[in-house]
Amino acid sequence: MLRMRVALLMALTMFGAAACSKVGGGGALPDDMDMGNAQSKITVVEYASVGCPVCAKWQREVYPAFKAKYIDTNKVHYVFREMLVGGGPEIAVAASGFLVARCAGKDKYFSVNDAIFRDQEQAFEAPRETLLNVAKSVGMTEDGFNKCINDEKAIQALNDRVERHNQVDHVNSTPTFVINGKALEPGYHSLDEIDAAIKAAGA
């Protein structure tokens, strides 16, 4: 099993249930990962976890078409915000997965996330082996992988991001999509539903 700080992981799962009429931020923050046109009038923020099965389903079924239609054409600014929800293997895979994605660098960050989403079920069964294979696929050595997932500063930074997304943005479910500051109901959304929300945001 991957060695993670138990106390930290417990803290990350202690999300409040605060409700707010406006969920999420409208633009990218310095530590966000993003793609597309940063000057676009439409910003789509996705709060997700690479250990979330519903997020993985959306990634497989909707994201490729969403990316082709909106990100690759620079019609939207897409911002991805890391969350840790659930427990057991879900949160361990997500925490370590996000650390590996960050260590890989911004140019490979989304490739790492894609690979973890794709191999998510396998990662639940064999987390270290699966995530190490993902890390190696983007040029990381095993030593580099070990240092990455045990980097206390990086773990604390992840903790800080997740707490901010929960406490400041009032997000506690994944996936949550926020389009120009307006949140969709948390959960899976088809491309048609996202199309409609983007159209409304641009009206």
Structural notes for this entry:
- The chain is of the alpha+beta class.
- The chain has one domain: Glutaredoxin.
- The chain is built from ten helices and five strands; from the N terminus they run αββααβααααααββα.
- It has a five-stranded mixed beta sheet with strand order 1-3-2-4-5, with helices on both faces.
- It is globular.
Briefly summarize what is shown.
The chain has 203 residues and is of the alpha+beta class. Helices cover 53% and strands 11% of the residues. Helix 4 runs antiparallel to helix 5.
Distance between the termini: 49 Å
Helix fraction by DSSP (H/I, runs of at least 4): 40-55%
Which range does the strand content fall in?
5-15%
- Strand arrangement in the largest pleated sheet: 1-3-2-4-5
Biggest sheet features: 5 strands, mixed
CATH topology: Glutaredoxin
> What is the averaged pLDDT score?
88
Q: Count the DSSP helices.
A: 10
How many individual β-strands?
Answer: 5
Runs in which pLDDT lies below 50 for 5 or more consecutive residues are 1-23
The CATH class label is Alpha Beta
Shape: globular
CATH-assigned homologous superfamily: Glutaredoxin
- What is the gyration radius calculated from CA atoms? 16 Å
User: Would you tell me the structural class of the helices and strands?
Assistant: alpha+beta
Order of helices and strands: HEEHHEHHHHHHEEH
Give the tally of structural domains: 1
What is the correct CATH architecture?
A: 3-Layer(aba) Sandwich
